[in-house]
Amino acid sequence: MTRQDTTKTALITGASRGLGLALARSLAADGWRLILTARGADALKPVADELGALAVAGDVADPGHRDRLAHAVHDQGGLDLLVNNASGLGAVPLPPLAGYPIDALEDLFRSNVLAPLALIQLTLRGLRERRGAIVNISSDAAVEAYEGWGGYGATKAALERLSGVLAAEEPDVLVWWVDPGEMNTAMLADAVGAEEAAAAAGPESVVPTLRRLIAERPASGRVRHE
């Protein structure tokens, strides 16, 4: 369809829980049109129903699913914001690099690096036209050497490098790669245990940082939530 109103549209991956869900709720409260995706349709549907959003369930590592998301963006009339939040943790318990299963690492790069880039490629034309923005969710593991986090950290370091180069190549699109810090999420619990994860702040604590970026539109770059 050709959009006639001024409502802004966001596509958020990994939107059924954690930071993706918290951001989706915040944007919906301000009247954004939302396209939400996550692997679990059963978890995603009630979120979409709650927020009046379009749910497109599937795995962003699947090219066919990414095509469906691109079609959804076109049908909604364009895109103002792409949030690459979906992410895998990799092998658990977190193994040292000396014993990291290479097939698991390949899968992790597909999910955490190639999938976000491919989705950017599919939606970039629309983002350019609307002078939109991209938020790639990163991690302090991208820049710090934590034992056991080599596989996950390597994918986030790669995502950060892609983000920086994309920012240099695409002057009409803002690109922010955001380190949210530790959050009390299912992923962190899988990595360090539920008790330690529970001591971290909830993902909703990061939303004000993201909303400031979206509202104030600073120059592209790395952003660390404090």
Automatic annotation (TrEMBL):
Coiled coil: none annotated. Pfam families: adh_short (PF00106). Keywords: Oxidoreductase. The keyword Nucleus does not apply. GO terms for cellular component: membrane. PROSITE patterns: ADH_SHORT. One of its GO terms (molecular function) is oxidoreductase activity. Belongs to the short-chain dehydrogenases/reductases (SDR) family. This is NADP-dependent 3-hydroxy acid dehydrogenase YdfG.
